[in-house]
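Justification of resources, computational component.

The compute hours requested in this renewal are based largely on the per-chain cost of generating structure records like the one below. Each record pairs the submitted sequence with a full structure-token output. That output is archived, and it is also reused by downstream analysis tasks.
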Amino acid sequence: MNFLETNLKGVYIIEPAIHGDHRGWFMETYSNKAFTNAGLELNFVQDNQSFSASIGTLRGLHYQMNPKAQTKLVRCTKGAIFDVAVDIRKGSQTFGEWFGIELSEENKKQLLVPKGFAHGFMTITEDAEVQYKVDEVYSPDIDRGIIWNDPKIGINWPIDIKPILSEKDQFAPLLKDAEINFFFGDEE
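The structure output for this chain reads:
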């Protein structure tokens, strides 16, 4: 596995080693040893999967507040998505900045989104399936979100159409109004 740090400290692109032959291919999608060797000690407790039928489905920007914040290891196993992490750690030099990458069944890349970051994605193909590991169980009482098109964040979504959103995501607050209890340095 190759771990590439992005412009946001703690957010990594993970490129698995793919071993192919005449039968197909094999890859490790997670290795505790490889992550530990990269300085990433995580204890994943749950795997999640979503399916989106239409291009332009947007899920996010989501996060759970402390003390049940989640680190996510995200991959797209069918189709393709544009996956985004937004730094929401107060006091961070990159507060409000975002990083985005295409994750697809073809490129097999993954994105590690640590605690203190909001996460979201837009489908860029029909019939997209996303799988992700989390290191904390879902806690609806502290589940929060930020509106997908906050102009202060300025995410450059790859498809210029009105996205398909859940009711919750349609009415999420701007970053400046969001309930956030992350502070830069708490995660270290």
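The CA atoms of residues 82 and 158 lie 7 Å apart. The helical segments are 32-37, 167-170.
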